[in-house]
Amino acid sequence: xxxxxxxxxxxxxxxxxxxxxxxxxxxxxxxxxxxxxxxxxxxxxxxxxxxxxxxxxxxxxxxxxxxxxxxxxxxxxxxxxxxxxxxxxxxxxxxxxxxxxxxxxxxxxxxxxxxxxxxxxxxxxxxxxxxxxxxxxxxxxxxxxxxxxxxxxxxxxxxxxxxxxxxxxxxxxxxxxxxxxxxxxxxxxxxxxxxxxxxxxxxxxxxxxxxxxxxxxxxxxxxxxxxxxxxxxxxxxxxxxxxxxxxxxxxxxxxxxxxxxxxxxxxxxxxxxxxxxxxxxxxxxxxxxxxxxxxxxxxxxxxxxxxxxxxxxxxxxxxxxxxxxxxxxxxxxxxxxxxxxxxxxxxxxxxxxxxxxx
Length: 358
What we know:
358 residues; elongated; single chain; 6-stranded antiparallel sheet; alpha+beta
């Protein structure tokens, strides 16, 4: 693998040298055009060789995605390069290449900053987190030193993602009667599948979403445990469906909320915000998106993902608050149902024991 990676870094180094040489030359000059053609001719065989190896197995797939993003950044368009970097980040994440995923986030943050975009902090902060995770302390320190302004506000959620302004009111616009009835309906159920159906039905009804997904962490991976759609009467359970294999949900948004523990509210995801170039967002043409952390006893256990593909600004402040409170009740009920199932299984393992009383 290391010998094959050498081809990747040979191409990346050639791109960096070319970038330094033509930095002050106009792109339309004959010399610049000739140098660009010479560069592409030189790295073309390297790229083809890496593509051949990637076809045989996944180990170099993230590096090929990185290489394609860099080629587009240096010789192509900003918009396409941004999209390719997002693809490369997803590929590195899927393959478990934490350091490379951090470096790709750093590269994308720098690309956005150089092109006057407003959401570079999201990717630079994620790069620092990933460097810290794989104990690349010097890389994290260097990043924080070079972009000190972007890390001064790191403790708060990025303000451009949170569309609704914070409020100091004490929930005057909530339907408390509906909230109490819904909470009681959720808390009264202890059988897991029935509970999941009830949770999804209530959340879909209260939020104004078309589609709802409950994603739960299990043994270090995220799984879609339940999904519900406005066109269906009940939630269609998807037990133990890995998030990466799920359809109809933006995986990058779900992962982001799970990592940060912060609420994410987008009024038109396909047109604005840091996820507008994500392949899932564009493929599904997402508009209103609300993604909430599911927290039990101060510990993140998953996320609730809601979307509406027909209308902007669906998730008002009132609906968002209602959904947050119901999500809190859902987390408590899921824990109660889990404990109840453990009690039932324990009794079933003991001969002669009857079914436990609820």
